[in-house]
Amino acid sequence: MSAHEEQAFRAEVAQWMAANLAGGFACLKHRGGPGDEEAFPELRKAWERRLAEGGWTGLGWPRAHGGRGLPVMQQVIFHEEYARAGGPGRMGHIGEGLIGPTLIAFGTEDQKARLLPGIRNGTTFWCQGYSEPGAGSDLANVRTRAVRDAASGDWLVSGQKVWTSLAHDSDWIFVLARCAPGSHGSKGLVFLMLPLDQPGIEIRPIRQMGGGAEFNEVFFDGARAAAADVLGEPGDGWRIAMALLGFERGISTLGQQMQFTHELEWVAQAARDNGSSRDALVRQRIARAWAGLRVMRANALRMLAGAAQAGQDGGTALQREALIYKYYWSNWHRDLGQLALDVLGPLANVLDHGDTRRTRLQQMALFSRADTIYAGTNEIQLNIIAERGLGMPREARGQS
After folding, report:
1. How far apart are CA 73 and CA 315, in angstroms?
2. Which residue would you say has higher pLDDT here, 19 or 314?
3. Rounded to the nearest 5°, which phi and psi values hold at 38?
4. Cα 86 from Cα 5, distance rounded (Å)
5. Domain end: 91, 117, 141, which one?
6. What pLDDT is recorded for position 314?
7. Is there a contact between 395 and 379 (Cβ–Cβ < 8 Å)?
8. Does one domain contain both 74 and 139?
9. Which of 42, 110, 228, 255 has a CA 20 to 30 Å removed from the CA of 371?
10. Are 219 and 189 in contact, with CB atoms under 8 Å apart?
């Protein structure tokens, strides 16, 4: 793709966003991201349908499965321009970005035919059932059980998942469960897909100190996953789950970084407005954050190139380039949150909903404290880097 073609595509995305993120959708600008996921859920679902109508969903999906089959660079451009325009947090991210590509890679033809269209069209929404009270950072400690119903061949699920984002606004959930009694760690797991609107599933919100409740606990008491809704084979759940996490570190990371750029700009503007930019240390920290973003983008492009090559070679496992990504961005973002509070000074502790920028910075700073915990703590990420990336001896782990 030539530089001229890239610029033309970038302009096309920007023009579409300007024309459509307007009118009734204008209030969605910069809303619905991490820490703000409860904002306008129904309107953001309508926005997903608008994106689908415009041909902006399933960009990297193969054409045979309803996608556009765009090359990596065009996907990168879309996500960057989407975030640049203030595009809202995607209600369809878990479906389009995670379970959709996993279905394409591992699903049966029946599963693809039934489940992909709703994701692509912005009419069916998914959530992720991985973390449990005793299996958050170390997913191999999963205790949720799945037992085969001999009469129907379906799976009956019992257990609990936690920190399930937007479960209350979702239609389906994918669940990692233990299907082999007595198994430990990554062995004996099954990857199941379940509709949430059924007996045996209870969703309870987790109210946070900021007042929101985008996270949930999901309880399963004999909930049913149809035999046709097992992804992969029983016992193969860990491989499917890890492949899905590989898709999580995909193209949308460039959009995440553009949102980080907005946040850094808000911090810098606040520093200019209140005079804290005259402090040499504050200027140094802002410059270091800017440099960190450049490093992050360079590594993301390297990671995407590695993933594309792995896909050509038939592989779906996380590449070494991807192993450092979560650790790097989460620590960078946590530090940006602290910088925001330091720049705001005493006003960081004062709520004023009329001051939109201050509220955004406070919200970002509070939520960023969780970045190094969810999706694998720093400690787990360093273990992954050491063991899978550097080939160091595995840490001793007890069986549960």
Report:
1. 20
2. 19
3. -80, -5
4. 23
5. 91
6. 43
7. no
8. no
9. 42
10. no
Q: 173, 231 in Cβ contact below 8 A?
A: no
CA distance readout (Å), 223 to 37, 52, 115, 119, 156: 27, 31, 19, 23, 5
* Active-site choice (38, 80, 96, 248): 248
Q: Fill in the DSSP letter of residue 99.
A: I
Range of the domain at 229: 126-235
Judge whether 120 lies within some domain.
Answer: no
Q: Is 248 a catalytic residue?
A: yes
Helices H / strands E in the chain, number of each:
13, 7
- pLDDT computed for residue 312 by the predictor: 44
The predicted-structure confidence for 201-242, as pLDDT tens digits, reads as follows 999 998 876 667 788 999 999 999 999 999 999 999 999 998
Instruction: Round to whole Å and give the CA distance between 80 and 34.
Output: 17
Alpha-carbon distance values, 218 to 134, 146, 170, 203 (Å): 14, 15, 12, 5
Mark whether 178 and 223 lie in a shared domain: yes
235, 268, 283 — which closes off a domain?
A: 235
Model's pTM, two decimal places? 0.86
- Average model confidence (pLDDT) across the chain: 90
Cα 115 to Cα 37: distance, rounded to the nearest angstrom: 24
Confirm if 5 and 62 have CB atoms less than 8 A apart: no
Q: What's the rounded Cα separation, in Å, for the pair 296 and 149?
A: 47
Domain count, the chain: 3
